[in-house]
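Summary of Year 1 activities. Much of the first year was spent building the evaluation harness for sequence design. The harness presents a backbone, in tokenized form, and records the residue chosen at every position. We chose the following record to illustrate the format because it has been used consistently in internal testing since the harness was completed.
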């Protein structure tokens, strides 16, 4: 039996572990406020909150329920829009949406309310920018967003008074969430901590597999890895960072060590999908997807990442990420192996840059993306690692371009010569995301952007034209 708290009620079900949380909420529990939109995690209409214990405290994330298997909410607290209702009045987020005319047809509204309520539950230093960021996974086709942004600003203004010593009590007292939230922490502690769902096919957050194989998953023998303790955690040893395979993008975007070490780290990772997806998308899943334009794969290639692959007998082996991809969706990985650990070098100098071009700035797949790590000895390039996606059948580590840069003086001439070599390493094709010529142009411009961004005093755009 799968058990979890749904709003204020304990739920037990024998439904298949692969059943999506969205389908269970709507069809088994008849909670129709959670809407069916795209079923791909793109529109946010099915957004719910998921609370779990971390270091003995209940912490909440927003998540797309259309991509969440029931197995991944075992022992947790799932909150739909119905679970945010107060007995006799609207809660503060709902009221802000009404006051600011933040809803028209209403289809997307529950998702926005849940995402803003999640922001209220988690923010320690509320700002309007952060509030708007919290709803970056929710799409509205009616309002033009400005009224919703005004609602987010109104919520933020109220949250500035939040008591950070007793945040949950303050939220209850000030009509943000119902009072049953005060009991959740103790109720979650009553669940078994060692319950697991094991099978033959490994799945993490499900954000890719549930898009590709939604109907087939019900017949698959799945091994659910998302909450396995041995596959979670971020460890730093010197300038090396070790990620267990169930670490999510949000775990990394919020990591204080990386935020301190890499300027613009938050800005770069904001380009990866949306908040509800980042909350459940695992780094290992982004790698194992094998997409030629996987954003985090491109980042890790430039950081000289190494994978640990572990089989059913718990025997591990190491492989460099740049050697992992043998061809399109073909890997140096045996059937019984999973990616159990990812190790990469944190750029000691902070000279890291990530660039991405897509049809819309956020929540989209790249046409071309690229990353670079570079270090200087005076004005000589001591080391360089460049990667690029969307320019071939696999995520590409640019071996020849990286080697060419090492030992060269940092000048516009060096950069232009390196770009000419870079073009020989690319093999883009024309597809829905752009022609071959367009992708080669993007590769050129984004490669130049690395140097213009990292060395603005030395490399000027006019000298590269």
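For this record, the design step produced the sequence shown next.
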């Amino acid at each position: 039996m799968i058990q979890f708290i749904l709003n204020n009620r304990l739920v037990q079900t024998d439904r298949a572990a692969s059943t999506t949380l969205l389908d269970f909420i709507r069809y088994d529990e008849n909670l129709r406020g959670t809407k069916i939109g795209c079923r791909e995690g793109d529109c946010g209409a099915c957004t719910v909150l998921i609370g779990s214990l971390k270091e003995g405290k209940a912490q909440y994330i927003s998540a797309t329920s259309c991509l969440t298997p029931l197995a991944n909410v075992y022992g947790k607290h799932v909150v739909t829009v119905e679970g945010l209702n107060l007995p006799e009045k609207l809660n503060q987020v709902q009221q802000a949406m009404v006051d600011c005319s933040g809803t028209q047809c209403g289809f997307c509204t529950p998702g926005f309310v849940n995402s803003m309520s999640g922001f209220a539950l988690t923010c320690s230093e509320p700002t309007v920018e952060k509030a708007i960021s919290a709803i970056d996974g929710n799409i509205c086709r009616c309002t033009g967003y400005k009224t919703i942004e005004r609602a987010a600003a109104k919520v933020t203004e109220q949250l500035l008074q939040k008591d950070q010593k007793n945040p949950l009590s303050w939220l209850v007292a000030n009509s943000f969430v119902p009072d049953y939230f005060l009991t959740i922490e103790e109720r979650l502690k009553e669940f078994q901590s060692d319950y697991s769902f094991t099978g033959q096919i490994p799945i993490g957050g499900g954000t890719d597999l549930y898009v590709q194989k939604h109907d087939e998953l019900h017949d698959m023998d799945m091994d659910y890895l998302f909450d396995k303790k041995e596959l979670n955690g971020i460890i730093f040893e010197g300038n090396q960072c070790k990620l267990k395979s169930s670490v999510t993008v949000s775990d990394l975007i919020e990591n204080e060590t990386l935020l301190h070490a890499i300027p613009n780290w938050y800005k770069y990772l904001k380009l990866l999908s949306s908040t509800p997806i980042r909350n459940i998308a695992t780094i290992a899943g982004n790698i194992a997807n094998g997409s030629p334009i996987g954003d985090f794969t491109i980042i890790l290639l430039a950081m000289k990442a190494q994978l640990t692959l572990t089989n059913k007998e718990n025997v591990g082996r190491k492989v460099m990420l740049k050697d992992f991809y043998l061809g399109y969706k073909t890997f140096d990985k045996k059937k019984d192996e999973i990616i159990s650990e990812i190790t990469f070098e944190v750029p000691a100098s902070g000279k890291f840059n990530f660039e991405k071009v897509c049809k819309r700035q956020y929540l989209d797949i790249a046409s071309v993306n690229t990353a670079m790590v570079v270090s200087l000895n005076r004005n000589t390039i001591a080391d360089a690692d460049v990667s690029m996606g969307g320019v071939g059948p696999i995520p590409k580590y640019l071996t020849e371009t990286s080697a060419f840069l090492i030992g060269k003086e940092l000048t516009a001439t060096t950069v232009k010569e390196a770009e000419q070599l870079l073009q020989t390493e690319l093999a883009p094709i024309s597809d829905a995301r752009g022609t071959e010529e367009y992708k080669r142009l993007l590769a050129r411009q984004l490669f130049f952007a690395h140097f213009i961004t990292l060395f603005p005093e030395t490399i000027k755009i006019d000298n590269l034209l």
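The longest helix spans residues 436-454. Quantitative recovery figures across the full test set are reported in Table 2.
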